[in-house]
Amino acid sequence: MQKKFTSLIFFLFVAIVGLQAQNLILKTKGGTEQIKPLSSLKKITFSNNNLLVNYLSGPTETYSLSTISKLYFKSTLTGTGSIALNSEAHILSIYPNPVNNVIYIQNAPEEISTVFIYRLDGVKVLQAQVSEGNSCIQVGTLAKGLYLLKLNNQAIKFIKL
């Protein structure tokens, strides 16, 4: 019964927090916290009084529910994503993140470049041209969710509200 209750609370919390969470935090009764980036997780399940954390890379970690004092998600409601574009250390940034209608690209390349936006399942949902003088993308038509913006073979994840 405790397992079903714990599962219900967990999935209810996931539904409330939604895609705003960036990390799963496991706090043990000993006081240590383990941070698990959601982008690296395949699935989280409960089995035989254990929490099973499956990673995209293949391995599975098992935690006894009796050793976990708290299980929560750390939300990131504002911020920017950034990547290094080349050896000259030009930093590409996007903002706002999360976004409602328009996403702006800071430090876009001088030449015209194609930006691709993908859903997490790999489906391309948007393609646009940007340059240093025109660095905004209309994303208001996208469904709410987590997306990857790809520019010059680099990717930044963002949340569409």
List keywords for this structure.
161 residues; mainly beta; SH3 type barrels; Immunoglobulin-like; 2 domains; four-stranded antiparallel sheet; 14 strands; 10% helix
Quick summary of this structure?
The protein has 161 residues and is mainly beta.
Radius of gyration using CA atoms only = 19 Å
Shape call: elongated
What is the CATH top level name of the largest domain? Mainly Beta
Sheet having the most strands: 4 strands, antiparallel
Give the oligomer, counting copies of the same chain as homo and different chains as hetero.
single chain
Number of domains: 2
Q: What separation lies between the terminal Cα atoms?
A: 36 Å
Protein architecture, described:
The protein has two domains: 2-75, Roll (SH3 type barrels); 81-160, Sandwich (Immunoglobulin-like). The longest helix is centred in the N-terminal third of the chain and has 16 residues, at 2-17. 10% of the residues lie in helices and 52% in strands. It is built from one helix and 14 strands, in the order H-E-E-E-E-E-E-E-E-E-E-E-E-E-E. With 161 residues, it is mainly β.
Secondary-structure map with pairings?
Blueprint: H1 2-17, E1 21-28, E2 33-37, E3 41-47, E4 50-55, E5 60-64, E6 68-75, E7 81-84, E8 91-95, E9 102-106, E10 113-119, E11 124-130, E12 136-138, E13 145-151, E14 154-160
Antiparallel strand pairs: 1-2, 1-6, 3-4, 4-5, 7-8, 8-9, 9-12, 10-11, 10-13, 13-14
